[in-house]
Amino acid sequence: MKFDIELKQEALPSCTYTVLREAVRAVSIKGEKVLLIQTKDGDVKFPGGGVEASESHTDTLLREIIEETGYIRSEVLQKAGVVVEVKEDEFNQNQSFQMTSHYYWCNIHTDVRTCQQLDRYETDLSFKPVWLTIEEAIEMNEQAQNLEISWLERETAVLKALRK
What we know:
The protein is α+β, with helices and mostly antiparallel strands. The protein is built from 4 helices and 9 strands; from the N terminus they run E-E-E-E-E-E-H-E-E-H-E-H-H. It has a 5-stranded mixed beta sheet with strand order 1-7-8-2-6. Strands 3, 4, 5 and 9 form a 4-stranded antiparallel beta sheet that branches. A hairpin with a 2-residue loop joins strand 3 and strand 4. Helix 3 runs antiparallel to helix 4. The relative contact order is 0.27.
């Protein structure tokens, strides 16, 4: 199963510049449950983050899995899909922001775990790894729809694609 999703803000202002960001995200399913990161607001997202200049997708994903979940033994398998988001840049209204998120199937071994290594904003949001059914995760994100969370639409769309 592969998915390609495009999420585009309807009324984008005419922008002179587009900020591009590339990210990778882990999709790991064990039995009926998928590994996600839950925040203090009750929403969930896939583990992952931005690709740094010197990193491959695999290197970034392995680093992000350790940082966000503490799971230290993981394997990146094949690509599950891509989500492209285009919207007004929240920091500069004269430019647009395009995030391309590459999702990969991952085998995450849960037998060995270390402490999470969270960034400040991740600590502020109380990131914690959770294993949930896809239906539980969709329900949690739909309950959080009224919150302004940048990844909510993207992650819910991917969860719905995985449900099919």
